[in-house]
């Protein structure tokens, strides 16, 4: 097993992140937070692709 290291740093949530999920192809990440937003992040390029507001 490789040593863990920080690969990417994503910043946009305004509150505590409570959930994360990788896509099956590991090319995207979805994060959910107490700020009632979901973010869909592609790994390349490192930008926020979509913001979904009002999730429960």
From TrEMBL:
PROSITE patterns named in the record: WD_REPEATS_2 (PS50082), WD_REPEATS_REGION (PS50294)
Protein name per the record: Uncharacterized protein
Signal peptide: none
GO biological process terms, semicolon-separated: cilium assembly
Pfam families: WD40 (PF00400)
Gene3D superfamilies reported in the protein's UniProt record: YVTN repeat-like/Quinoprotein amine dehydrogenase (2.130.10.10)
A Gene Ontology term for the protein's cellular component: ciliary basal body
Domain of life: Eukaryota
Sequence ranges of the WD repeats: 10-41
């Amino acid at each position: 097993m490789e040593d863990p290291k920080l690969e990417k740093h994503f910043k946009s949530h305004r509150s505590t992140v409570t959930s994360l999920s990788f896509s099956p192809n590991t090319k995207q990440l979805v994060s959910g937070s107490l700020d009632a937003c979901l973010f869909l992040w592609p790994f390349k390029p490192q930008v926020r692709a979509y913001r979904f507001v009002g999730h429960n």
